[in-house]
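Feature request, filed as a ticket because there's no other form

It would be nice if the structure record came with a short human-readable summary line next to the tokens. Right now we just get the raw output. Example of a typical job, pasted below so the devs can see what we mean:
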Amino acid sequence: MIPAAPVLPTLLVIPTGIGCAVGGYAGDGLPAARLLAAASGCLITHPNVMNAAALYWSDRRIHYVEGWALDRFAAGALALAPVPFQRVGVLLDAGIEPELALRHRQVVEACRASLGLPLGPVLSSDVPLEVSLSLGPSGSSWGCLGRPDELLRVGERLVAAGATAIAVVARFPDDPEAAALAAYRHGGGVDALAGAEAVISHLLSRHLGIPCAHAPALAPLPPDQDLDPRAAAEELGHTFLPCVLVGLSRAPDLRPEPAAGEGLLHADQLGAVVAPAGALGGEAVLACAERGVPLIAVEGNPCLLQVSGEALGLPVLPAAGYAEAAGLVLALREGIDAAVLSRPLAPLAAPD
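Raw output as currently delivered:
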């Protein structure tokens, strides 16, 4: 039997809240992640790519890493330690109405009973977390948290009670008549929740040093006949929590570098990074580029930003879409020079 090629640890980044055509909705980046995981044998990505509300996909080749931790990993400050499971504690915002809070508690019980996930405890904050939403000058989504102290305090209590990862459910403002929400549901605009979600998960992960992710609590929306398929996963139930619990249940531990041990993933093992061609200015991508990790820029995933390889002076491997990106990852994994796959094929430069 011919042995398989060694895995090529690959980083997939689709930034949150910037209107990406792929990955800017409810888990619509998942098919791309699955394909890249198959091509690479080892994919590191973040909740924005994997979270599809009531839908999820569990794959041992995909490592679910919160955005702040992903940046730290790419910068060489954290190693990732795959583990058999995490015990996921759940933090419920006191601002969630009793009936909606009950729905979220029932999701936790359903994931225990139907999926066998080790979950708990479930704790509520003493006061509302006070989430507010806004848009930045570029049109990307952003948000604020009125009580970050309460978020961190309850997070500490969950860790003291035995949680090794934390799912946060915060009450987000409802605005069913907003033009931005209508545009998003119809396939345009930006996910207005994503920026505030990133603030919450970044803050908690940085403070506790464990995997964290967020699910917003919202009132259900009325049915929409013209709903874009990419937004449909958010319309399936009362909560967005199931995908977060599944993702966190196998999220790797975070180990400060230098870290030693069997099976750890380190930044210097990365063989490729894949990102939208117009969104190459993030910390993770730039850290990889600085170390010479091949950067695959997906031109078929437009967004609000125009931070390209050309604008940054970075060499990139252009890909028309994620299928082509997966082909480039596979070429790198097999030791094939991607340049020889295109025509015309330029000759090697003669020596001086």
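Something like this underneath would help us a lot:
The chain has a mean pLDDT of 95.
The first strand starts at residue 10 and ends at 12.
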